[in-house]
Structures are given as structure tokens and as C-alpha cells.
Amino acid sequence: MTPAESDNNQRVAVVTGASRGIGKAIAERLCADGHHVVLVARSAEAIETLAGELVGSGGSAEACPCDLSDDAAADAMLEGVFERHGRLDILVNNAGITRDGLILRMSDEDFDAVLGTNLRAAFRLCRAAARPMMRGRWGRIINIGSVVGIMGNPGQCNYAAAKAGLIGMTRSIGKELGGKGITANVIAPGFIETDMTDALPDQLVKEAVGRLPARRLGKPEEIAHSVSFLASEGAGYVTGHVLAVDGGMLS
Ligand code: NAP
Is residue 159 annotated as a catalytic residue, yes or no? Predict the structure, then answer.
């Protein structure tokens, strides 16, 4: 088996935003679970290095550099996956960006960019993945939302709209495809230690963590663990669910 090939019985998982942070941890975890993992992000070098490491440690993975805000590039990326493997079993829409600002100063461009990457690109990949999943009568769609999509957050009306949109979209997909053996769920992380939270002011993070029942930031691996569960055979009766992995933030 060459690094980019999956064997016939192996499930194929596409993980977007796999170059760092939560997506990287998800890719590592799904690979350790025995799946062939397709790593998607714009940073070609980062995902090629990660694919090399995963294959080097006995896993099965490939890098597919792609800017998901480019419709044609996203379509070509997923078509390439079907052509090479003839299947797609697990889709994790994790790629996300922020363009924070208070509503009075938020530009149309910042609103559209966040909706484009965080919601529209996820919708387009779910739509494209539905057909091969239906054909295989098995599928797992896992969309990475945020607690912000449930509770809102000042300065993030674009991000909150995208993440709230993911919840409605995922529940609708779950209802449409449930009879075909396909589940669709959202994981809503709280504060997780990644580049995204590194960009926040220290004082803001300190105060937020102080209010959390868990009294600490979450780790990317803790999100990956929940993805692994939702992608598993045993989670076949869990669909339309929003799983907060947030140290108790929403409790
Ligand atoms: P991160 O470290 O900023 O990583 C974001 C990932 O998305 C990167 O791999 C990035 O790769 C990829 N990406 C962004 N735009 C893309 C595009 N146009 N095309 C392809 N890939 C793109 O973020 P993170 O903290 O790991 O967050 C991952 C997900 O969890 C996001 O959806 C985020 O909203 C959500 N989340 C995070 C937290 C948190 O506390 N960290 C909390 C709640 C929810 P390239 O730059 O290489 O393209």
C-alpha cells in the first residue's frame, strides 16, 4: 500500500483545517483509529509534513492543499478523493477563521469571509460528500462549531452567525440523511489552546478561564477524542446532536 492509498475496507476521512490546532489533533486521532485521513488546508508544507509523519508511524494519510473559500478548488479536491479511493466515509468540517469587530465597524468583507469559510465551504463539502456516503449507506458528518454559536460573543457576530448556522444546517442534514446510515453532528468547543486563542488578549483569557468550572483551557486532543467517538461505529444512533466540549462553559 502506498502512503496515499487506502485499502478497500479502510474508511476514508477528510479533515479540513488539518495544518494545525484542533484539526491537526483530529487528523492524528482518526489516523490512530485506523482510518485513511485526507488532510486539507492552505498551508501545503504543514500538511505534507504531517502526512509524512503519520505515514512514517504506520498510519495512512495524504495531504490535499486547498483553499476552501475557492469553490472550484474545493470541488476539485473532493473529486480527487473520490477518484483515488472510490469512497468517502467521514467528513470533519473543522477549517475556520475569525475576523472580529463590533457590529458598528464590521465590514461586509469581514462578514462574508467568515461565513464563506466557516459555513458556506462546510455546506458545499457536506453536499458533495452526501452522495458517496449514501452509496455506501454509511457516513459520519462532524462539523466543528463553537459555544459562540449558542451563546453569542461581543465582537463576533459574523463568527457566531456562521457557527449557529452550522448547527441548523447539521441538524437538517441529519434529518435528511438519517435513513441512509449517515449521522450528522456538531462539536462545540469552548476555549481550546490553539493559535486562534493565542491571538486573544491574555487578560481576557485569564478572566474567562477563571469563570470556567474546569478552570483551564481545553486541549485540541480533547476535541479529537469526541470526534473519534462520533466517527465510530458505536455512535451510529447519535445524530443531530450538539456536543459542547467546553470545560462546563455552557453549564
Ligand atoms: P486555527 O489554529 O486557527 O486553525 C484553523 C485551521 O483552518 C488551519 O488549519 C487553517 O489552515 C484552516 N483554514 C482556515 N481557512 C482555510 C481555508 N480557506 N481553506 C482551508 N483551510 C483553512 O484554529 P483552531 O483553534 O484549531 O480551530 C479549529 C476549529 O475549531 C475552527 O472551526 C474554530 O472556529 C473552532 N473553534 C476553536 C476554538 C478554540 O478555542 N480554538 C473554540 C471554538 C471553536 P491554513 O491556514 O493552512 O489554511
Answer: yes
pTM for the model: 0.97
Ligand 1 atom at shortest distance from the alpha carbon of 46: 47
Query: Which one of 3.40.50.920, 2.40.50.100, 3.40.50.720, 3.40.1190.10 gives the CATH number of domain 12-245?
Result: 3.40.50.720
All cell numbers assigned to 218: 481545553
The one catalytic residue among 40, 159, 160, 173: 159
Evaluate whether 224 touches 22 at the Cβ level (below 8 Å): yes
CA distance 24 to 220: 8
Q: Give tens-digit pLDDT for 11-53.
A: 999 999 999 999 999 999 999 999 999 999 999 999 999 999 9
- Would you call 127 exposed, middle or buried from its count of C-beta atoms within 10 A (0-12, 13-18, 19+)? exposed
Minimum CA distance residue for ligand 1 atom 8: 17
